[in-house]
Design goal:
It contains 6 helices and 5 strands. By secondary structure, it is an alpha+beta fold. It folds into 2 domains: 3-53 and 128-171, no CATH class; 55-103, no CATH class. It has a 5-stranded antiparallel beta sheet, sandwiched between helices. A hairpin with a 5-residue loop joins β2 (33-41) and β3 (47-51).
Length: 172
């Protein structure tokens, strides 16, 4: 898993706008976002979480392809034709992939989301992003500076964490 950065905003739309900008930057610069979520605290105190990556969708598809292929090969070997192997392999792969997607430890850690909820006020938003590339690259920092965000938590090495906090503090 990449390095996690949690950025807090006093406006409910800024976290979503920053995520959009990072995705747009990814078209011209290698921004390798593994996972992202936007958390918004409504006026009634409820926190809405919008996940960008849904493992329940990804695992069944890859499971169906993998087990479908495996079933076709085994069906061809044992029955003389791949058609029966596909008929059994694809549905079994879909079910196994769905089960793996439900119970696999992918996505952003739930405890970090719970921790971010505690400090949020109504109208606040938090962007949780896990990415593989450096958060202190010039292009990413230039995008981050345009938003009035505050670093809440990171899993960056201490030197990179301090540098990112310093750069964003000077921009505000």
């Amino acid at each position: 898993m990449g390095e996690l950065v949690a950025l807090g905003f006093k406006d409910r739309l800024l976290a979503d706008a920053l995520l959009y900008e990072l995705n747009e930057l990814g078209r011209e610069y290698p921004v390798d976002i593994e996972d992202a979520a936007v958390m918004v605290k409504n006026d009634d105190g409820n926190v809405e979480v919008i996940e960008e990556y849904d493992p329940f969708v990804q695992f069944p598809i890859s499971g169906a392809l993998y087990f479908g292929f495996l079933g076709a090969v085994l069906g061809w070997i044992f029955t003389g034709g791949p058609f029966i192997g596909l008929q059994i392999g694809v549905p079994v792969g879909w079910i196994l992939g769905a089960v793996a997607g439900r119970f696999a430890p992918v996505g952003l850690p739930r405890e970090i989301g719970k921790e971010m909820e505690k400090g949020m006020q109504p109208g606040d938003s938090v962007l949780l992003v896990s990415a593989r590339n450096s958060w202190n690259s010039d292009k990413i920092v230039s995008v981050l500076k345009r938003f009035d965000g505050k670093v809440l938590k990171t899993t960056l090495p201490p030197a990179e964490d301090a540098q990112l906090r310093k750069v964003l503090a000077s921009a505000n």
